[in-house]
Structure formats: structure tokens, C-alpha cells
Design goal:
alpha+beta; 2 domains; three-stranded antiparallel β-sheet
């Protein structure tokens, strides 16, 4: 390329016509893992070594400029400081400065010194979107190049967010060799689980049951049972259970109640909650069971949990918060269904009071973050 010709081997990942920087990008390993102590220069270079010394003549050849009115024997790290001096023509200057390697030179030899001059040498010092606003504004004004500033800001913002996410994952509590992994879409899948329900009392349907899609504009229709409702006898199943507990002594009374429950206007018998990716107990594998049945006894449990959460502000060393244990037995999945329903309700609870939810099942731990750097993610 140009006067400083260079032999390029076929295994270098690019042709002789490609700029050194382009070949470096192709050959480089997948993107680096940034930390809060990563140098801003490394971030702006995407972890690739600084570009080789390139003459202006090479860039002129790249844009097919054949004139002799420009001194091409000037290094690009010098040109980039005052490009209008070395490339008087505005159109030609814009073409050259738009080349990928020239953008990189600009980041290294213009943006980095300005950042360091404002005391920003690392990703942590760059900070979040609302941090170091005065220093950022000073760098932006000094660059006087909107495209270059947007590139600088975009790369550093992305690196800062990645570093903060990595730091949050390390705080989950696992050894660094077993760092928690974000499960894409898991948080949204549980939060946005779809409601439906089964209603009894429809004489024109098989067994008198009818299935409804229970969500209208994100609101469950009808609403899940209130605390008063779940304290009442829920249906035939509970009546039969009472019969067994009383050795049949209440058969006549139970039969009377059974007729009341079975007859009359339609009533909701069970809700169904469907998560597109499944639940923690299915390891968020979409091909596994994606739905849970929500029964009255599960809603009772939630009301107990909700009452305890409301009491948290009043807890003292003398009257501490108490753990609650829900015992389940192997069977039709009520325990796992109840856990999934509680998780769904807790994720919808006020984030200021419940900022995160931990779910443990089958030797695995899932942390659902509702606030902070990892808000809206599950690990």
C-alpha cells in the first residue's frame, strides 16, 4: 500500500490491499472482558494494539486521490492533530477521516489525551451516564467532532455497563471460577407470564368447564381470589377432604354445601400461569412444562407472605422477621407450582421493598434482580 510497501503472508487474515488495522480486527480474539480498572485507551482500541505508523500517502491512496498537491510523507498521528492543515480540501479531508484506521488514530491521539486531561483514565472513572458530566462536556467540546465524540462515548458507556454487570455477577456469592451467568429472557418470561383460567357452571360445555384467556390489557380478568375468598370453602375437592377428616359425620351438611358450590352462576375453579421460557424448576428450558396451576391454597400462601412483607418495617431485634416454611409432598406438582406463583408475585411487588428475589431448586440458585445495574435480569 503506497510507498511503504509491506509483504503480507496469506495467513495474516487479509489481503495486501487491506489496512493494518482491518487485518488486526479480523485476527483478534473475541471482545475483551472489561473491568472498572480497564484503561480508556484499551477500550477505545477494542483491546487491539495501537495502529502501526501509517503515512498520509497510504490513506490518500485508499481514497484514490492521485494529486500531487499534498505532502504524503507525514505520519497520520501528526495529521490527526490538525487535519485541516495537512488536507486543505474539505471533501477529501472528510473521506480520509472517515477511514476506519483514521477513526482509530483520532481516538488514540485526540480523544485519549483529552480524557486523561480531565482525569478520566479508567472505565470506572468514566462512570455511568449521569457521572462526570462536566468532564465529559469538556472532552466533547474540545473534540469538536460529533461523530468522534459519539464513538468515544458509545465505546466507554458499553465498557462501563459490561464492567458493572460483571461486578454484580461476582457479588452473587459464587467463586470466580463458577461466576453466575445471565439467563437471557428469563426475568421477562416470568414477569410477563400469561394468565388463563378454568370456569365451572357452563352447562353447554363438557363437564360444565370452560377455558378462558384471562388477560385483558395486562390485567387478570377476573382478578385472582382475594384473601376473604380463599378463606372460604373452595369447591368439591375441599368438601370431600372435610368428609374424610370427619369420618363422614358431616355427610349431609357437606352434600348441602356441595350443591351450593356446584350450582348457580359460573365461578373460577383454577388459574393457569404460562411462562414462555418455563420456570426455575424447569431450568428455563422452553421445551419443558411452561405452565403452573394456581389453586386457592397457593393464593392463601401468597397472602400470608404479603402480610409478612408489609410487617418488615416494624421488625425489631425483639420482634424479628420470621422465616416461613412451606411443606410439600411428591404428587401433582403443587409445591413447585406454588413456588413459581410466589416468584411471579414477588417480581411484581414494589421493587423498593423487594429489590431482588432468590429462588433455590434442585441444587441451583436463581437471583432475579429488580433494581441496580442488573435490573431486569436473572442469573
Amino acid at each position: 500500500m503506497g510507498r511503504r510497501s509491506r509483504r503480507v503472508r496469506q495467513d495474516e487474515g487479509g489481503g495486501a490491499g487491506e489496512p493494518p488495522l482491518s487485518r488486526a480486527r479480523v485476527e483478534s480474539a473475541p471482545g475483551p472482558r472489561w473491568t472498572l480498572s480497564s484503561d480508556v485507551a484499551d477500550v477505545l482500541l477494542r483491546g487491539v494494539p495501537p495502529p502501526e505508523e501509517v503515512l498520509l500517502s497510504e490513506c490518500l491512496e485508499r481514497v484514490r486521490h492521485r494529486g500531487t498537491d499534498i505532502d504524503g510523507n507525514v505520519r497520520m498521528d501528526v495529521v490527526i492533530q490538525r487535519p485541516e492543515r495537512f488536507i486543505p480540501d474539505a471533501d477529501l479531508r472528510e473521506m480520509i477521516l472517515s477511514l476506519p484506521e483514521c477513526q482509530t488514530y483520532a481516538l488514540v491521539y485526540r480523544a485519549v489525551p483529552l480524557l486523561r486531561g480531565e482525569g478520566i483514565t479508567s472505565v470506572g472513572q468514566w462512570g455511568g451516564a449521569d457521572e462526570n458530566t462536566d468532564a465529559r462536556r469538556a472532552v466533547r467540546d474540545a473534540l469538536a467532532d460529533k461523530r468522534l465524540w459519539n464513538t468515544t462515548r458509545g465505546l466507554l458507556d458499553a465498557a462501563f455497563n459490561a464492567a458493572k454487570d460483571a461486578e454484580a455477577r461476582r457479588k452473587v456469592g459464587k467463586p470466580e471460577s463458577e461466576a453466575a451467568v445471565v439467563i437471557p429472557g428469563a426475568f421477562e418470561s416470568v414477569v410477563n407470564a400469561r394468565w388463563s383460567y378454568v370456569e365451572s357452571g357452563h352447562v353447554d360445555m363438557p363437564l360444565g368447564l370452560k377455558i378462558f384467556d384471562g388477560t385483558v390489557d395486562g390485567v387478570v380478568v377476573p382478578p385472582v381470589w382475594s384473601f376473604v375468598e380463599v378463606k372460604e370453602i373452595s369447591g368439591v375437592d375441599e368438601l370431600e377432604l372435610r368428609d374424610l377428616e370427619d369420618d363422614g359425620e358431616r355427610d349431609m351438611a357437606a352434600e348441602h354445601d356441595r350443591k351450593i358450590v356446584a350450582g348457580g352462576r359460573p365461578r373460577v375453579e383454577i388459574f393457569v400461569l404460562t411462562s414462555a421460557m418455563g420456570w426455575p424448576y424447569t431450568k428455563f428450558i422452553p421445551t419443558n412444562v411452561r405452565y403452573v396451576f394456581v389453586r386457592r391454597e397457593m393464593v392463601r400462601v401468597w397472602h400470608v407472605v404479603e402480610q409478612r412483607i408489609q410487617m418488615w418495617p416494624n421488625c425489631t431485634p425483639r420482634c424479628p422477621n420470621k422465616p416461613h416454611i412451606l411443606l410439600g409432598t411428591p404428587g401433582i406438582g403443587k409445591s413447585l407450582g406454588c413456588g413459581s406463583y410466589l416468584l411471579h408475585r414477588l417480581l411484581h411487588y414494589d421493587a423498593a421493598k423487594v429489590p431482588a428475589v432468590a429462588y433455590f431448586v434442585g441444587g441451583s440458585a436463581y437471583i432475579f434482580h429488580k433494581t441496580g445495574a442488573m435490573a431486569g435480569q436473572a442469573v
